[in-house]
Amino acid sequence: MILVVLAGFGIYGLLAGPDRDHTPTPPGETASPAPSAPRESWTPGRPQLPPVVQSRDAETFARNVAEALFAWDTGSGFTPLDYTSVILEVGDPSGQEQAGLAGDIAAYLPTQGAWLQLRQYATRQYLMIDSITIPEAWADAVARAQPGQLAPGTVAYTIEGTRHRDGMWNDDPQTSSIDVAFTVFIVCPPTGNDPCSLLRLSQLDNPLR
Fold first, then answer.
1. What segment(s) does the record annotate as region Disordered (predicted)?
2. Most buried residue, 10, 68, 138, 162, by CB count within 10 Å?
3. What is the pTM of this model?
């Protein structure tokens, strides 16, 4: 089915360029609004979220992005936009994919309204990764790409794991877990010392296989 509808528009974004309009939220998903401005600069005494650890190794970087994407805590004092900004900081340095990436990330996070509700229960989330693989469909996507459409060093990794949440309900600890799968599209320059960058994300549970 045309690479599973181009992995929820992730590959389309890479091959056709940055999104000009906000991608509709998939049914059953909630999304926070994409940030319209760069993250505020750091000021003394202002709490900061830990950055995504950068790497020149593609698989290591894909793992770091995946863990950061799912790691949030409603009791931390931060908002979904703060968590989005941290991911965007390791996004495409050219800026061509930033608008599309912002929308991709937003689909993985609670809306601001949902965040406020979850905060009442001190909800936290993290990801336990089971596997990271280059999907077979990626080779087909690369073969179909026109010359110059994909930057050298561009690669996709499909990640499967378990999303864990915990919180409190009537003073009783509560936990939940659910299997998830998704694909990250990254680029690692084959020359020089620049680290890998995140280009796009597939829809959650609509990965390349």
1. 17-52
2. 10
3. 0.79
